[in-house]
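Comment on this:
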Amino acid sequence: MSCSARSRGRVAMATCDYTRAVEPNHPRRFVQLSGLGLVLALACASTLADVKPLPCSEWPTTVVAAVPLIIAALTPAQRSVVLATSRDSLLTLQGEWGEDIETLLGLNAGNAALVAAACGHDCSADQATLLLMQAAWDALKK
């Protein structure tokens, strides 16, 4: 993946061209961002191709077991972005960091036990991912 950025005044244009195992023909993305948004996009997007799913035999089934795996998978750049993001704004990272978590922990590949453990009831993988992101954020902030 390659990313480049240029700015005009207070607005930055980020161009990212990347390939993911899930979407091999993903089109080139042009995103107009400003300030911290550019840092978030480049820091998180730069790691998308690096996430490898755990074998299903190693999938965690509890939030307590999942959080250390999520934190260990963060790059230094991602860690900085997560720590700079408020808990209420974590949803803005779901498109990048959330997808990394879903891939790593098999949330969209059949890890129903972790989805149920994260939500306490029947919910979607996306809902469980946000709750796992919040739990990892809480652990990082301690």
About this structure: The longest strand covers residues 2-8. The two ends are 33 Å apart (CA to CA). The first helix runs from residue 36 to 45.
